[in-house]
Amino acid sequence: MTADRNRVVIVADDYQFLDTVHGPSAAIVQEWQVANSLERLAELVVPSPLAVVIDLESPAIDPVDALNLLNSTRSTAKVVLLTGTDLRKLATAKRVAENLSLEVAGTLERPLMMGALSKLLARHAESRAPIAPDELKRALRENELLLHYQPIYARHAGDWSMRGAEALVRWQHPERGLLYPGQFLKLAETSGLLGEMTDFVIAEAARQAGLWEAAGLDLSVDINLTPSLVRDTGFIDRFMRVLKEHDASPERMTIEVIEAASLQDRELVREVLTRLRLYGVGLSLDDFGTGYSSLTELCRLPFSELKIDRTLIHDVPDLRQASTIVAAIIELAHRLSIRVCAEGVETEQAFEFLKDAGCDSVQGVLFAMPMPVADLERLARSRPEAAAFAAAG
Q: Which residues of 152-182 are buried (b: 16+ CB within 10 A; e: fewer)?
């Protein structure tokens, strides 16, 4: 069976990690698809993709089952094993792949890095033309960009319910299929289109927040914003004008930012974000617990929330050091009257730990993956979370 060049299937639970892929873009991997069940994997491996990346830490699909499926479909895809902390799983997966005569192209460590994957697959792939700036300009002009939403669940008097969602940009490319931010954000930056793309995200998120408010859905929207884009005081007027245009209350919008301390005009950024808080817009410090965040930011800006990075959450409660750090972050934030959201929650054990530690809200594949707006609305109206959290207590 001939391999579908430049297409990679990733066996994992979480679409979200595709939004945080770091490293230079490459012409090698032009389409990513995620399989979070054996049924979905069976659909995606015919015709054979260039490679199948198997996340050995994924609780949804057993790696051995995934390898057996590749063998049964006579797939010619190269196998890439994404490793965590369990070396026994890695040894078992390699042995099974060898017995099934599947070609293991190599192993990579979590989190998945675009540069490392491209380098690993370089000798196996036929080069395809990289995405050109004109394609992205056309996408903005022709409304090819869209938003998916990942639900965020919050604690209310001991119960948990959906309080909102994080907006995540996608590109429905007419030829390359659905593209994730890791495939085009760097292009947006280098081609001077990041500002225009951010304007789209703000306007679309505000429009959706206004529609939810009018429909009686008590949902807020989180959007990611690079601090460098708010370097002028005119941003405030533009942002508030968009909210008014779509009848979206400021209290239903939260801006997520990473550390801004490295900016030369950080005092101006501080002024802009502080004024937005005075209008009622939420302000969340994203990726807390990594090199992109610091305690200084908590003192310098009026944050209403911080988000603990998924790389820390992935290791709780199994690693004592990570658990201690996460518990300390939650306690510190609460002492400063700041709410805490945990990103990338994948297991019941992690959720139990976060509940006991007093975490205010959570998001991750344990609850829901990013999804089109229609799917999120159905989920919000059906309120299945009550049943999902009943077992969790």
A: bbbbeeeebebbbbbbbbbbebeebeebbbb
d(CA 93, CA 67): 8
Domains of the chain with bracketed CATH: 4-121 (3.40.50.2300), 133-390 (3.20.20.450)
- Of 45, 31, 47, nearest to 171 by C-alpha is 31
- 367 backbone dihedrals φ, ψ, rounded to 5°: -105, -50
Q: Which residue has 């007419």 as its token pair?
A: 174
State the distance between the two ends of the chain, measured CA to CA, in whole angstroms: 49
Kindly list the distances between the CA atom of residue 31 and the CA atoms of 9, 26, 230, in Å, as whole numbers in the listed order.
Answer: 8, 11, 32
pLDDT digits (tens, 9 = 90+) for 268-304: 888 888 999 999 999 999 888 766 566 777 888 899 9
Confidence of residue 16 (pLDDT cuts 50, 70, 90): low
8 A C-beta contact, residue 10 and residue 112: yes
CA distance 230 to 117: 33
Q: Closest by alpha carbon to 362, among 164, 130, 228, 149?
A: 164
pLDDT digits (tens, 9 = 90+) for 76-133: 889 999 887 677 888 889 989 988 989 898 998 877 777 788 888 877 765 556 789 9
CB count, 10 Å around CB of 386? 11
